[in-house]
What we know:
The complex is a heterodimer. Helices cover 67% and strands 1% of the residues of chain A. By secondary structure, chain A is mostly helical.
Amino acid sequence: MYTQGLNQATENGGPEDADRLARFQAKIDREEKIEPNDWMPEAYRQTLIRQISQHAHSEIVGMLPEGNWLTRAPSLRRKAILLAKVQDEGGHGLYLYAAAETLGVSRAEMVDRLLGGQARYSSIFNYPTITWADVGAIGWLVDGAAIMNQIPLCRCSYGPYARAMIRICKEESFHQRQGYEAISRLAEGTAEQKRMAQEALDRWWWPSLMMFGPSDADSAHTSQSMRWKIKRFTNDELRQKFVDATVPQARLIGLEPPDPELRQNEESGHWRFGEIDWSEFNEVLAGNGPCNRERMAARRKAHADGAWVREAALAHARKTRARAAAGA
Amino acid sequence: MADTLTATYALRLGDDALILSHRLSEWVGHGPELEEDIALANTALDLLGQARMLLSHAGECEGRDRDEDALAYGRDVMDFSNLLLVEQPNGDFAQTMMRQFLFDAYAVELWPRLSASHDEILAGIAGKAAKEATYHVEQSAAWVVRMGDGTEESHARIQAGLDLLWPYASEMFEADEVEVTLAEKGIAVASSDMQVPWQTRVEAVLEDAGLAPPQGAGLRTGGRQGRHSEHLGHLLAAFQFLQRAYPGAEW
């Protein structure tokens, strides 16, 4: 990967590129931020565009499963919390797209790639929200897993991404606590509510573990991204952190993750968990998850239905400018 | 001591905010552009916040031990007293924004006046809502103009929205005994005071947008008395589902 990146970077450059690359890496090694106007290898730029836009798309598609319960939240307080949360996700999408735009790609291009099926989003959002407990489970587990991934990104070598992540992480951690509070309420509620909570944990547990991506041995991007300090921990390290944090939270409220092999290692304190079914992960990634088609159809419909609105806004802006020019 | 009149009045305003907030929340994740998605959610949140305070206040005035959730989730259609305008379906973005504009232009007249209410709680809620209504109407009026002036298609759509919703506007200015009595006591705002300023603002925006209200479209009314359109029942069926399916559960 590294050699390949270097070759790509030298293609349009010259003999200085090896030096530039060394200076670039030295800057990263000194923990200095790379800023939009700084020179960067093309592979670094492309890696970030891929990662940040994927993250932005995940926020936007992620509005759908929880948005599914906006009209059915069981109390006005829960409705307000959920509305604010889904709105936050839209806001995260907005600044992530803006961060990616500093790398020379437009939001329209990124959205086209999402709607055209070339860009990915987190596959967790291809699972359905069937009951109200799923809203709590998403906050607790999905946002919980996202935070594990995202806190190290606050120190990412690319300045605009790192800064966007600081605010995002604050909000995500709030969401995680709200989700846990919501599912705790169910777990201590009536038998029916408790069943709802356990059943949501049963469905979301394994997909949440898969959110960290393939095992280190099978991960295509890890080593180069770590050298570039885009990534600070490996997928397996983060997954372990998540399991260690989450198992005690589940047990505290009387819920049990659906893994008969779950055991705490007395020496290390780590929770050992069973084998992840990667065939399911790969199926969802390939577009065959329970809601892949629905999620993309909803995004495409919103975009298509909104086309005339966007055209109207542009036409009005053009006319306003023309009138101002004629009047001036 | 129960104050049925103030309870009824607060409930009306609370129901308006609650039902319109719910309609806007249906858009979230499906807006025409990300910024608008966020703006719709934001307005929905403001309205929900108003609704919660108004319903809580109505419950306290009523003195029947009903909190915001008991009132929101425990009443059937005939006991909701919102304007028919706010329960009308979203339709396209033009219809949503026209509904919003007609309502915001009313809210921006209502809340500053009500912030002088002799009912201190109502006055406090109104003071907060007045600030929110100011930017809501800025947003919705700007969209009405953009769509009216934009393209042939957007003009046709926003005019269709106006044609559809115009008949619901007059209900905002209907006074009844509840309002008249409370207005005399300095607790409520007399709707008739707001009609002319509302009309002036609406006409100015419609003119900027190149739109004209329909002629002879008739009037639709009845919401304040619990006589609603068919749409409200469907809205409540989704909204109240969990509270109905699991009576007595805490969420």
